Amino acid sequence: MLFWSIIHSFMPSGGGGDVTMQKGDMIYQNGDTAHIHLAHIPEVVVSRIPQYFRTLNDLFQSGETVINSQSLGKILQITPAQIRKDLSYFGKFGKQGKGYNVEYLLDALRGVLGLDREWKVAVIGVGRLGRAIIGYPGFGPDGFKIVASFDEDPRQVGQSFGGLIVRPMSELANVVSKENIKIAIVAVPASQANKVVNMLVEVGIKAILNYAPTSPITPKNVRVRNIDPIVSLQAMTFYLQSEKEVEISLV
Amino acid sequence: MLFWSIIHSFMPSGGGGDVTMQKGDMIYQNGDTAHIHLAHIPEVVVSRIPQYFRTLNDLFQSGETVINSQSLGKILQITPAQIRKDLSYFGKFGKQGKGYNVEYLLDALRGVLGLDREWKVAVIGVGRLGRAIIGYPGFGPDGFKIVASFDEDPRQVGQSFGGLIVRPMSELANVVSKENIKIAIVAVPASQANKVVNMLVEVGIKAILNYAPTSPITPKNVRVRNIDPIVSLQAMTFYLQSEKEVEISLV
DNA sequence: GTATGTGAAGCACTTCACAGCT
DNA sequence: AGCTGTGAAGTGCTTCACATAC
User: Hey, is the C-beta of B188 within 8 angstroms of any chain A C-beta?
Assistant: First the structure.
């Protein structure tokens, strides 16, 4: 039985020379565990893997057993070469002349993304949005389990939404450490967002899905993804107004 | 008084030779209107402009009058060079030795993004998420006005949320054309999403903010932005499980 | 002195094209 | 014959570094 371990930044700071890693390099064996160190994987690649995963899930549900990079590309509007290259960062999952076995690739990507376990999630802010998130049925099937909710407002604390009791922020540290929560969803007003994010970093949260219209600053080892519908809409209105005349000063 | 016009794809298809445009090229004068044709602007650049806009808005609200690319970069975690380069696609908005006048740059970017007008928006699907969107107060201040909501479910039709009556899908074409709606927000279950998106394209919607966990296919002249929290979370779990051992078959 | 705007250099991602396997 | 996996080529975005302007 063999294992692999993804090491994202391997910097033996104690001196002794630089180490340049190549994809697939096996560096050392530690007890029973063989560690394979992968070279840097581009962030854009990582962000596409969940899309492949979701599509493969859909295909699997509809009973498809095999798919090739061309068909997958058509569904996702991505070139076949891109898909093959992306997958090749993680292994060889296909068969020449055939394509990819849907179930096999699905399992492989589940492992790559770390979805072969349950991730506990905390929701901060139980306003209209927070409650919609708690009630959203889409998290469970993918292994995300919302196990706690918090709010600063004493009038919300103690209430129950979706079978989850709203706790005061003062309990954040305790609950996060006791439940070993690594992921938080921020659904508080913009004015509170930065403060809340700082608290989350403080108590050891490592991934934050931020619905507040801010770009909070966090240490490099804490990941943030911002979901801001306004920003998304504005990126589209730019294209909508092509050929519309806009006044500027032209010396 | 001078104007500029952003032409994104200028392809005189009637023959007569290729036209390669350079940033800032002035191509022709038509009546009172000088048209300046900008070269292709990278999509990543366009997607960053709304972030600059939001931050400048925040700064303006807090009374800041001047900012330089360094400070703006610190807030947004973007290099100063990147910010200056991005802005340079659209004009020269700063002063050497000084920086950017916040209000002036804000106005300029408002024009660039086409936010110096009101954009009417339709929401499709008034489930929990759709209602949260309709009730979200963040759209108004940025010029997005939700003017209509639709749902396929007859039990929802006729109800009123946030002062907006839910209409049946059969009225979509009429309302969109009469109200001149160009933007739609899709908040229906995944199973209906593709069908709904096709209907939206059909009736002339040009920009879609899609909350369903799908990647709908649309003509090139219809923009889609997908907001899928699961995909965002999964891109983060990849990094969370660094150094975690994952079983694979290593021949 | 300070900070912008921008060609040029550097770097990273995408696409090509084909060897290799089925 | 068909499709993957992948070096190499191509493309495009980012960063540099400095002339220019305040």
Answer: no
